[in-house]
């Protein structure tokens, strides 16, 4: 295999192989975070799992690094690499639904928009993310926090089976019966173990929800955050919602004179009976006056895609995150000090609830270890102008520095930045040693190391 050439690779895969000098190379190498600029030896737009296996074998035969790109939302830019091979799954976006079994199988390049479009006609869904352009595979492999997590668990808790291309080019199935140790590690362990070319999920009866964003003045932010802390502790599990610092975009339901003003927003999702939604949100409305809102019955996919326009490809990205057990008065004070400084309309801070069904899974049942955390915070710096990189990155760092001492040591791997490699062990807590054991079994040479890496 040492003479496995690029021309031979082109002959052996069904998908396109794009190399420097080829038409479309600059587009093919582009990733979500515009801060990342890499020049791969080849981008292999795989058409199937066999193509992915061939691309892995090509990379290994030529001693090249391997990057795997699914939905392409990796903030650290793990979906590309200089002078290596990018396995691009974007051409594999099919989703097949079995309504009788209440399951759906998504290919490795599918986004949550693809997934929701396939399951919605059946009145079914599973826990996805907050942005519909997020990849199903990447979100799930890191855990999978979303609107439905309190009711149905994380995305990885709903994973039934996965097809995986391993570092030696073999294609295997991972589930509770086959390669069970690999299946355990995939549920939260990120992209450390192979190229996941399809994922099967358990679905739940969710079609239309009651919810949407509400905007509160900054003067009322403390009251809203304190209310949220108490309310979410024992709220019905059909409720998923979170507070966010957000500059008001120029939307028709927001008074024009307040466009561009920072607010404490609250995004709600009630997945129970629609006629109960208004009553569930009444307590929140009673906390403080609502400046603007777009709340009511809507298809679940509509809420899941409502903020896509704020995070188009090509922004600059720098994020930080932690898990939180208790939203203490000191933590709220830190949010009140730094949240209002959100620099641009694309940037934000969210405090996601991860109690309810997430807590009913044992910490060692999957690789996702923080089953006693109640919240997952993310400080998401996202902006269009590279001239603002230094100032906007500093906003994230200052905010994180104020909140991290009041949080757990670890955070959600999907929200980690490229400079967070030193946090990998604490992000997995008591599961880290077991993850290293699985890594040694399936990828002893650390072929899949362009991620929040678990070294063998």
From TrEMBL:
SUPFAM superfamilies linked to this entry: FAD-binding/transporter-associated domain-like (SSF56176), FAD-linked oxidases, C-terminal domain (SSF55103)
InterPro entries named among the record's database cross-references: BBE, FAD-bd_PCMH, FAD-bd_PCMH-like_sf, FAD-bd_PCMH_sub1, FAD-bd_PCMH_sub2, FAD-linked_Oxase-like_C, FAD-linked_Oxidoreductase, Oxid_FAD_bind_N
GO molecular function: FAD binding; oxidoreductase activity
Domain FAD-binding PCMH-type, first and last residues per copy: 36-206
Pfam short name (any one): FAD_binding_4
Cofactors named for this entry: FAD
Keywords: FAD, Flavoprotein, Oxidoreductase
Family: Belongs to the oxygen-dependent FAD-linked oxidoreductase family.
This protein's name: FAD/FMN-containing dehydrogenase
């Amino acid at each position: 295999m040492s003479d496995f050439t690029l021309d031979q690779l082109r002959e052996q895969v069904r998908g396109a192989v794009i190399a420097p000098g080829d038409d479309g190379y600059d587009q093919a190498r582009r990733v979500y975070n515009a801060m990342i600029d890499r020049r791969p030896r080849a981008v292999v737009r795989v058409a199937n799992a066999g193509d992915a296996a061939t691309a892995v074998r090509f990379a290994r035969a030529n001693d090249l690094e391997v990057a795997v790109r699914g939905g392409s939302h990796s903030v650290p830019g793990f979906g590309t690499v200089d002078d290596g091979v990018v396995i691009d799954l974007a051409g594999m976006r099919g989703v097949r639904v079995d309504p009788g079994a209440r399951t759906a199988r998504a290919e490795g390049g599918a986004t949550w928009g693809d997934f929701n479009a396939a399951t919605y006609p059946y009145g079914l869904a599973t826990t996805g993310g907050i942005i519909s352009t997020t990849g199903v595979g990447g979100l799930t492999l890191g855990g999978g926090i979303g609107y439905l997590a309190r009711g149905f668990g994380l995305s990885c808790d709903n994973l039934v089976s996965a097809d995986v291309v391993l570092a030696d080019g073999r294609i295997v199935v991972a589930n509770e019966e086959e390669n069970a140790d690999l299946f355990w590690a995939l549920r939260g362990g990120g992209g450390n173990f192979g190229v996941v070319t399809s994922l099967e999920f358990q679905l739940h009866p969710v079609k239309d929800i009651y919810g949407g964003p509400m905007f509160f003045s900054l003067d009322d932010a403390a009251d809203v955050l304190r209310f949220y802390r108490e309310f979410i502790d024992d709220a019905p599990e059909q409720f998923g919602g979170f507070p966010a610092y957000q500059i008001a975009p120029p939307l028709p339901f927001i008074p024009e004179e307040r466009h561009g003003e920072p607010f404490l927003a609250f995004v709600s999702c009630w997945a129970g009976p629609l006629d109960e939604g208004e009553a569930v949100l009444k307590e929140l409305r009673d906390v403080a006056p609502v400046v603007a809102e777009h709340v009511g019955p809507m298809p679940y996919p509509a809420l899941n895609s409502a903020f896509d326009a704020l995070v188009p490809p090509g922004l600059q990205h720098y994020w930080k995150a932690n898990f939180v057990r208790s939203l203490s008065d000191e933590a709220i004070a830190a949010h009140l000090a730094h949240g209002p400084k959100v620099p641009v309309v694309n940037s934000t801070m969210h405090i996601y609830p991860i109690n309810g069904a997430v807590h009913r899974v044992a910490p060692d049942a999957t690789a996702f270890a923080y089953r006693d955390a109640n919240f997952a915070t993310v400080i998401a710096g996202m902006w269009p102008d590279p001239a603002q990189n230094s100032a906007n990155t500093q906003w994230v760092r200052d905010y994180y520095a104020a909140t991290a001492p009041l949080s757990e040591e670890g955070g959600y791997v999907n929200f980690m930045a490229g400079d967070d490699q030193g946090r990998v062990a604490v992000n997995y807590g008591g599961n880290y040693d077991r993850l290293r054991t699985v890594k040694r079994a399936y990828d002893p040479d650390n072929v899949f190391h362009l991620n929040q890496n678990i070294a063998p």
